Amino acid sequence: MKIENETGADVATLRWIGGTDGYLQMIDQTLLPTEFREIECRTVETVWEAIKKLRVRGAPAIGIAAAYGVILGLQTVAGSDRGRFDQRLKEVSEYLAGSRPTAVNLFWALERLQKLADLSPELSGGEMHQRLLDDALKIEQEDLQMCHKIGEVGARLLAKGDGVLTHCNAGGLATSGGGTALSVFFEAARQGKEIHVYADETRPLLQGARLTTWELMQREIPVTLISDSMAGWVMQEKKIQAVVTGADRIAANGDAANKIGTYSVALLAHAHGIPFYIAAPSSTFDLSLESGNQIPIEERLAEEITNGFGKQTAPEGVDVYNPAFDVTPAKYIKGIITEQGLIQPVTKEEVSRVLSTADA
Ligand SMILES: CSC[C@H]1O[C@H](OP(=O)(O)O)[C@H](O)[C@@H]1O
């Protein structure tokens, strides 16, 4: 995402600096909103740690970071023969695939680079390294364009003066720059629709409180922070005319995995007759899965709940269950906003039809 830091310079959520011997620069999102700091990743291990610790997070951003992580990992075999290069490529891909299990964009990016390498076995390691970097850069640029198109498709669904609720952060920080759910809000605001966003704080890591409010305030879009437990009440009070969230993996039938709590929000929206939309690029779909019950759900450390942000709020040794995602069945999703167009109704047939449509 492009934001002005204290020096007034434009910075990106993450970006590659230099050539194949370069490095990855990213905003450390664990420090926001109180501190804006860019960190440098010069090894694949530092990228793995950044993904695991959510310094970089959000399905598309994780995919882009993983692609650049591969480039970093291959630096250790610069100048080696192609056989050693290919072996290292598999090593770093498997390593990065172990960082977080749910966001399919991570695996989509790794598989894309592997397929590219498989297409040209005749190239030297050095030539292939450059080709993979070129494609990693392309992944980032393609994501930026997809975010923009998602905004255009989704903004049509919002009316002037709408109250819209979102959960977690599906903004520029979760992508190459334009966001998915927040891209819809950015574009609606640009069109003068004067929307008002209600942002769930999103326990336990507070991506909504820390990141979504910060992004919207950066752009002077009206935003009200609410606790997760308030979502139903603001709907009952008719403050909400639509809900738009992101996604981390969408199955062939349209079932969608997203941050824990999204399923509850979808049920609440359904109970109040409020349309619930998912905004996601085509790289977030996993058509190999028939339905959402096959989506792997990441479980994270108990400390994120019992000692959130360093404050102990539960007895030592309490039993904790901390799934980072849940799955919303397609029947509760009014439409899926993609760069290829709106998937509505959300059915296997419509998913397949829209995703196979030429550029929207
Ligand atoms: C545009 S994808 C954003 C998606 O990713 C978030 O998960 P996390 O912060 O754990 O990476 C959340 O599910 C968002 O909706």
TrEMBL record:
Residues at which substrate binds: R57, G58, A59, R100, Q207, N258, K259
Reaction catalyzed: 5-(methylsulfanyl)-alpha-D-ribose 1-phosphate = 5-(methylsulfanyl)-D-ribulose 1-phosphate
Protein name: Methylthioribose-1-phosphate isomerase
One Pfam family recorded for the sequence: IF-2B
Source domain of life: Bacteria
Site, Transition state stabilizer: residue positions: C168
An example molecular function term from Gene Ontology annotations: S-methyl-5-thioribose-1-phosphate isomerase activity
Gene: mtnA
Keywords: Amino-acid biosynthesis, Isomerase, Methionine biosynthesis
Biological process, per Gene Ontology: L-methionine salvage from methylthioadenosine
Active site: D248 (proton donor)
Primary enzyme class: isomerase
Task performed by this protein: Catalyzes the interconversion of methylthioribose-1-phosphate (MTR-1-P) into methylthioribulose-1-phosphate (MTRu-1-P).
Similarity remark: Belongs to the EIF-2B alpha/beta/delta subunits family. MtnA subfamily.
InterPro entries attached to this UniProt entry: IF-2B-related (IPR000649), IF-M1Pi (IPR005251), IF_2B-like_C (IPR042529), Initiation_fac_2B_a/b/d (IPR011559), M1Pi_N (IPR027363), NagB/RpiA_transferase-like (IPR037171)
EC number: 5.3.1.23
Pathway this chain belongs to: Amino-acid biosynthesis; L-methionine biosynthesis via salvage pathway; L-methionine from S-methyl-5-thio-alpha-D-ribose 1-phosphate: step 1/6
HAMAP family: Salvage_MtnA
Gene3D superfamilies associated with the record: translation initiation factor eif-2b, domain 1 (1.20.120.420), Translation initiation factor eif-2b, domain 2 (3.40.50.10470)
